[in-house]
Amino acid sequence: MTMGTGSENGWSRAQGVVLKALVLVGGALLLKRLTKSTTRWDHARIVADSLSGDKFSQEQACRDPDNFFNLRMLTCPAAEMVDGSKVIYYEQAFWRTPQKPFRQRFYMVKPCPKEMKCDVEVSSYAIRDAEEYKNFCDRPKDQRPLPEEVIGDIAEHLTTIYLKRCERGKRCLYEGSTPEGGFPNSWSGASYCTSELAIHKNNEIHSWDRGYDDDGKQVWGVKRGPYEFKPAPALSFTDKFSLLNFPPPVSMEKRIEGSFVLQE
Q1: CB atoms < 10 A from the CB of 11, how many?
Q2: Which of 62, 112, 130, 244 is in Cβ range 3.0-4.6 Å of 116 for a Cys bridge?
Q3: What is the pLDDT of residues 73-110, one digit of tens each?
Q4: Does Lyase show up as a keyword for this record (predicted)?
């Protein structure tokens, strides 16, 4: 009887030791995961991945059709620089005519320089022969310009946005803008332009571009706030029929030229 009790006690102690060991190992792994720092390149990768994809301003256009259009924002990886910077092809078009983009750019995404108080910089560049890149992301990969060709077609620098991680409790993951004073821009009477960008959860992108003249008066760009691009939803036939599916009247086409960002 006594021997049986001793065996049971010994087994209980052994179980306790194993359990403690498992707890310690699990705690160490959890602590390692929690304390593992996100590298500068991790931040750049997260931003590049979030920017990529097929996104629409459909919901915003439904809420406020007087100020926002249902636009398609399509982006995808195009190349990688020697230093690891990601080059992303970017285009915007009306939802009803995705094959006719009115805005095309290359984005270059990389970590901010260590001396700057930001995490990721997103620079936009003109494309040397934009016609050659229309619908780049919709094409099979073997029908796209090669990465080395993409790099050779990166033309003039247009803007750079400096992003920081959003504070805990905010909806966004990263947010930022061009520096004070913006960048030179001569479209539609502007002398400079500014851009704001926010990366939200679920790959939602908020983008706000505006142009100003020498007196600081806004001459192009939306005034009500940023465009809100969300990943492409699964649209029903009714949605497709109702959401700006008909060509807008000429007056609306003229209005977009004055209210949006057709800068070249």
Answers
A1: 10
A2: 112
A3: 999 999 999 999 999 999 999 999 999 999 999 999 99
A4: yes
222 touches 208 (CB < 8 A): yes
Task: Indicate yes or no: pTM above 0.85.
Answer: no
As a residue count, the chain comes to: 264
In this structure, the number of other CB atoms found within 10 A of the CB of residue 126 comes to 16
Domains of the chain listed by start with CATH number:
40-234 (2.40.128.590)
User: What stretch of H or E contains 241?
Assistant: helix 237-242
**Concatenated DSSP letters of 185-210:** --GGG-SEEEEEEEEEGGG-EEEEEE
From the list 105, 69, 72, 68, the residue with the least C-alpha distance to 90 is 105
**Alpha-carbon gap, residue 195 to 117, rounded angstroms:** 18
d(CA 241, CA 234): 13
Residue 244, Cβ neighbours under 10 Å: how many?
A: 18
Residue 256: other Cβ atoms inside 10 A: 16
Tens of pLDDT, residues 148-205: 999 999 999 999 999 999 999 899 999 999 999 999 999 899 999 999 999 999 999 9
Tokens of 236: 């029903």
Closest C-alpha among 148, 147, 144 to residue 132: 144
Tell me which residue has tokens 């359990």: 19
Ranges of beta strands (E only) in 40-191 are 53-56, 71-80, 86-94, 103-111, 120-127, 154-165, 172-177, 183-184
Number of other CB atoms surrounding residue 150 within 10 Å: 22
